[in-house]
Amino acid sequence: MPEIKQELICQGIAASSGYAIGRICFVRHGESFYIEPSDRTIDESQVEVEIKHFYASLDAARNEILTLQETLRSKADASDVGIFDAQLLITDDQLLTREVEQMISTMHKPADYAFFKVVEKFVAAISVMPDSYIKERTADIRDVAARVLAHLQHRRAGDVQYDDQRIILAHDLTPSDTAALDRHRVLGFVVETGSASSHTAILARSMQLPAVLGIPADFMEKARDNDMLILDGYTGKLILHPTPETEAEYRRKMEETLVFFHKLDSEKRLSAETRDGFVLQLSGNIEKLEDVDTIHEFGGIGVGLFRSEYMFLNASGLPSEEEQFNTYVDMLCKMGREPVVVRTLDIGGDKLDQALQRYAEPNPFLGLRGIRFCLRERRDVLRTQLRALLRAGRFGNLKVMLPMVTCVEEVLEVRRLIAELQDELYDQRIEHALHLPVGAMIETPAAALLAGPLAKVVDFFSIGTNDLVQYTLAVDRTNERLNYLYYPTHPAVLTLIANCINAARRHNIWVSVCGQIAGDPRFTPLLVGLGVHELSMPPSSLGPVRRVVRKLQMADAELAAMQVLECETPEKALEISMNMLRSAAPEIAELIAPE
Ligand code: PEP
Ligand code: MG
Q: Which is the closest atom of ligand 1 to the Cα of 443?
């Protein structure tokens, strides 16, 4: 009789909406890579290439471990750092490397197979030792071997090893790991760390992958590869070993949601206009050129935020001026006359990149991030990006936006650089845009408080609430334990947002919101009432937000916004916006916050 496992429910943080029902693929510290490679024979002519590939993979794994150690050291977690010392010794073990080399050259075995076999021989030898401490090192050996194997087989963390679609369960997924997930093989993912505004969550929404983050470690301990799991990305609920009744209930919910979204889809040609005629622009946030079409698929107008750093993450080198130029032109051509807002490289914080050789910082979110990094550390990279943007600007309605601005001087410095590059392009007889609108992201309290002076030097504002909340409330956006303090409706945050919108209106410049609240219907009545011109969001959020806007009365929303600004607690402020949502569009409220 097969064992019947008890249904287990767990509450995490809802990071990306949607349901997923399926079996688990457990990615535990790269363990899933550790599968015996197929036994093949290589040609004599390939031997040298394979040996080189073997050593390059060892180097890559070693560098990864060093970076990991560096990060841990900055978190002062000395005991964990020691574990990786042992792993480094394994990558340097000459007995092991020599044996692998020999197996490749004499037996003509490919590097991955030879490496696996030699490692397993070592593990077998250690396993029979009486010393339990040494025995336990087999896990370390397999862990580091998994890392090396991933490089040998050109795979990344999170690659799914199964033929069917799976739900990924992992301790952690970095933004680059997430970006590398194969959407066709992954139903959704669950991660122990992280919060709804981390970049891992943002990517999940863009990729339309249901995701739940911030899961208790004991739940992760109970889950196993191949176990059945239901993932509810609307509420953050997880159900391990669902009973047939629970599974049937969720399959029914999935069907109903599908029908509902199908209905929303039929409204995509309608403009985002309130009942009393106020028109908002609803645009899309994208990370990859391939996603640009999804904006039109969901009825959006223009790209409100192109996170250009994803061209750099996961790339083998820095994207050249020509590559970037082609990407921007492709995007502009697909958008016709609609605006395309490209944010300059926003590296730093939780988005690190090997190609840019960033060193670990003790406080990366307060470090050389965004425009600071570009102006201070890699001006060459910013120059290349701005040249590509200037050249592409002739092909459509292109705008450039600067991340992590904290003072007027940063904008002026970029403007001087743009003028200098325009002269350079002119001298080189290279065609380019004579006018490239420049906007500032308002994502630091400094920028929000300085909105008046900033409005005089930029063409538009885009309020990045993900970071604005983090920096205003001193709450690390990636830390699941601080989720209870991460409130976009905190009175301090709302005061800054209102200050920024008012300054934009006074100076007659465009103001958009591109943080995740722009795509969350709970905040739509509030943002509409505060008077933003544009909401930019993951394309899949466009349908629900459009429906809400179309059901609102601007006069009511303005009144509610005024009340919200008087609130002394985040809960009260959210309640006002939520009540308005419930009365204007109950079907949407029911979907995201069932009562
Ligand atoms: C933001 O901070 O709100 C934003 C849109 O930028 P990102 O999430 O990429 O930091
Ligand atoms: Mg930001």
A: 2
